[in-house]
Structures are given as structure tokens and as C-alpha cells.
Amino acid sequence: MSSDSTDSSESTGTEGTDAQAAGERTAYVIVGGGLAAAKAVEGIRESDPTGSILLVAQEDRLPYERPPLSKGVLKGEDEMDTAFTHDRDWYAEQHVELRLGTAATVLDTAKHELTLDGGDVVGYEKLLLATGSAPRALDVPGADLDGVLYLREMQESEALKARLTDGARVVLIGAGWIGLEVAAAARHHGSSATIIEPQAAPLLGVMGEQVGGYFAELHRGHGVELRLGEGVERIEGDGRVTGVVTKSGDTVPADVVVVGVGITPNTGLAEGAGIETDNGIVTDPGLRTSAEGVWAAGDVANWRSTTLDTNVRVEHWANAQDGGLAAGRSMAGQDVTYDPIPFFFSDQYDIGLEYAGYVPRGTDAQVVLRGEPSSNEFMAFWVVPEGEGVRVLAGMHVNVWDTIDDVQRLVREHTVVDPARLGDPGVPLGEVAASTA
Ligand SMILES: Cc1cc2nc3c(=O)[nH]c(=O)nc-3n(C[C@H](O)[C@H](O)[C@H](O)COP(=O)(O)OP(=O)(O)OC[C@H]3O[C@@H](n4cnc5c(N)ncnc54)[C@H](O)[C@@H]3O)c2cc1C
């Protein structure tokens, strides 16, 4: 990707778009600088090669993908530039005007106008909110000390990587995806890693205790100390962090603390405009919001899933990619029903995993294992009883590749299966459906 990807000088001036100069509305305005924003351009250009597009992004970088920030880039195996979705030339070829380093501050859906930081007002025909999410802040004394870091943006990944040195003492607050992936990167660099997590297992909300326990063992096996069932009382230091004091009174020495306690969708612009929000921006299956001419996609969208018959908000890469593309298509007039089975992936040490499906909060799902977790090659399914068997709500593999399409099919088709065959690695996954009595 282009090495000048962070140079936004040509696009952050105060001059308006060509359309504005002519007193016209911009055909498409995209707010956001992540994967969903970049993919929306592709979706629009599939059927509208010439309509004016303005992309407004708060970060002073071209739109980029975040997964490498906690994996290859953080481990020093990949260059940061590999994270950019497209290089600058691509946007020029697509006739996209970029306003990087510029936040959109007010959306007026009645006037079809967007106000930008600095006061420029842009008229739009159609607008996409792809504003993503922001890390939840840790609200304890000492959370503002030097060395207490978050991981969402490129410069945060750069700052963290610089501190993951051999022998550095790294404390992760939260055993979610960020905490686990950063722990793996820390160990890669020879830093020590301690995870403090109030729940009984990592990833408890998504995986449950049994599969979460697998991740605890995985990390222990790589020398990570896990303090489960333990909260954080305060962070200590004298300007710079020196340790984390737990609720039970222990002090865990730290040179670096990484907070990964979840994210919240960036709904402020939508809320200010009176657009319906409820755990994100509510959309229909075409990713249209409650305001005429406004769409939403990516982490911020709480979209209507036809297959799952509920609204779903997904904080993962595939949803930003596919949702952004679908929103762009929908904006440009294609007939779109966005209806994927939610999907995510992670890489830690020598394991890769993919998960597909959706388990509504509060569901009393049982877990069916296929294979032995300690082998680091297994699958897990989250199921509920139905008829003579069970219905698969979600499934995951660890290092059992080329299986996720079958998992998605089971979820999408609401297939009822025999749990014994589902859990038997000797029965091809594509054939477990035929097992229903
Ligand atoms: C470190 C890290 C690792 C990850 N790893 C994985 C992984 O392994 N697998 C996986 O499935 N998912 C992963 N994810 C999640 C995935 O990256 C997100 O789901 C994805 O980035 C969402 O894309 P998005 O475009 O919706 O939003 P974002 O990527 O959050 O981008 C939104 C952008 O909009 C900008 N913005 C917000 N408000 C405004 C405004 N008012 N005006 C202008 N711009 C604004 C923000 O500054 C931001 O740049 C990871 C996330 C992180 C942070």
C-alpha cells in the first residue's frame, strides 16, 4: 500500500467538494474511516460510476482494517501499511473526495446537511453512518497514568508495540479478544503478561465457562498469568504506571497496562439527529436507518436480520466488510437484503479460530464439543434442544479449517441434528443434518 497513506494534506483543507462549489448536494457522503466506509465506496461504484462521493473520517489516515493492530503488526511481523484497505490512488481513481482528520459534528436529516469540524456544511443526497465503536474507558483511580493504554487506532498499536519489549511487565485488564490477543503478542516479544478479569473465564459472555476455560489453558500454557474472578481497585504509579491493585488487595507490578473492557458504538451523531438508536443505530435489512436518505453499517449498525428474526449488532471485521459493501449497494439503488450469519475470527499463538452464529444473550445454550480441546484442534457448537435433537445456534472451530461454511449452513437452515453425531469427528459435518431421526 502507498507509503503516503497518512498524508492527508491535500484533503483536509477548507475547500468544499466540486458539487458544493456548484451549489449542489454531494450524491453520497460517507462518515467514518474504517473498513465499512471503504467497502461502501466499492458498493456504490458497482452501480454508480460517476456520482460524487465525499468520505469524512475523524482519524488522519486512509480507511484501514483493525485486526492486524493486535496481531501481525503488533508482533512486528507485518508492516502497518498492510492494514490500509486501499491506497490513496484507489480513492482518486474512484473519484472519492477525502476529508481525513475531520469529524462530522452535526447531522440535519431534514435539510440533508452534514456539518464538519471547522464549520463546513455539506449537502448530501444519501449519507452513510459508518462511525464504528470506541473503547470503553476504565473508571478507576490511576487510569490516566502514562503507560495505561487502549487499542483501537493505528497510533495506539504503534505506541503499544514500542512498549512490548523483552522483560516488560504487561498487565491486561479484561480477558476479551483484545486482552487475549495482546497477551499473545506480549509473550511473542518476551514480555510477561498478566490478565486480570472479573469473570470466571476468558470470553465468558460469548463462549461460556467450558470453552472459555480452553482459552485460559491456552494462555497459561504460553506463560500468561490469569487472575480470574478478580477486579481492579486502582492503578498505581508516579506519573508513570507501576502496578495494578486488585480488589482483593494484591499489587501486580506493571510497566504497561492495556485496557480491553469492551467497546460502545459511536451513535452520537445519529442520536443528535433524532435517528432511532438502540444498542447502535437501528436499521432495516437494507441497512436504512429511521431517517430518509441515511444508512448505517459496520460496528455501529444494529441491523435487522431476516434469518435470525431479530436485530443484531456485530463488532467484527466481516460485518464491517460485508455490511459496508451492502450499504453502498443499497445507497446506489440496488435491492439489498443484508442477511449474513454473524462471523468472526481470531489468531493467538499457533491457533486460528473462526466462529459463526448468534446466541442471544440469556439463552441457556449447551455446548457440544467435537474433538479434544487440549489438542488445539477441535470444534464447539452452542445448541438448544429442539424436537428429537438439538438446533445449532453457533459453532466455532480451532485449527479445523474449511469447516465454517458447514457451520453457517447449520445455523442458517435452523437444522435439527443428533448431538452425538454433531460431536463425532468421524461424521462429516456436512452429513450431520441427515442424522435427524
Ligand atoms: C485491535 C483490534 C483487533 C481486531 N481484531 C479482529 C479480529 O481478529 N476479527 C474480527 O472479526 N474483528 C476484529 N476487530 C473488530 C473489527 O476491526 C471491527 O469490527 C471493525 O473495525 C469495524 O469497522 P467499522 O468500519 O464499522 O468501524 P471502525 O473500524 O471503528 O471505524 C470507524 C471510523 O469512523 C470514525 N468516526 C467516528 N465518528 C466519526 C465522526 N463523527 N466523523 C468522522 N469520522 C468518525 C472513527 O474515527 C473510525 O476511524 C478488531 C478490532 C480491533 C480494535
From TrEMBL:
<dbReference type="Pfam" id="PF07992">
    <property type="entry name" value="Pyr_redox_2"/>
</dbReference>
<dbReference type="InterPro" id="IPR050446">
    <property type="entry name" value="FAD-oxidoreductase/Apoptosis"/>
</dbReference>
<dbReference type="InterPro" id="IPR028202">
    <property type="entry name" value="Reductase_C"/>
</dbReference>
<feature type="domain" description="FAD/NAD(P)-binding">
    <location>
        <begin position="28"/>
        <end position="324"/>
    </location>
</feature>
<keyword id="KW-0285">Flavoprotein</keyword>
<feature type="region of interest" description="Disordered">
    <location>
        <begin position="1"/>
        <end position="21"/>
    </location>
</feature>
<feature type="domain" description="Reductase C-terminal">
    <location>
        <begin position="343"/>
        <end position="432"/>
    </location>
</feature>
<keyword id="KW-0274">FAD</keyword>
<feature type="compositionally biased region" description="Low complexity">
    <location>
        <begin position="1"/>
        <end position="18"/>
    </location>
</feature>
<dbReference type="InterPro" id="IPR016156">
    <property type="entry name" value="FAD/NAD-linked_Rdtase_dimer_sf"/>
</dbReference>
<dbReference type="Pfam" id="PF14759">
    <property type="entry name" value="Reductase_C"/>
</dbReference>
<protein>
    <submittedName>
        <fullName>FAD-dependent oxidoreductase</fullName>
    </submittedName>
</protein>
<dbReference type="InterPro" id="IPR036188">
    <property type="entry name" value="FAD/NAD-bd_sf"/>
</dbReference>
<keyword id="KW-0560">Oxidoreductase</keyword>
<dbReference type="InterPro" id="IPR023753">
    <property type="entry name" value="FAD/NAD-binding_dom"/>
</dbReference>
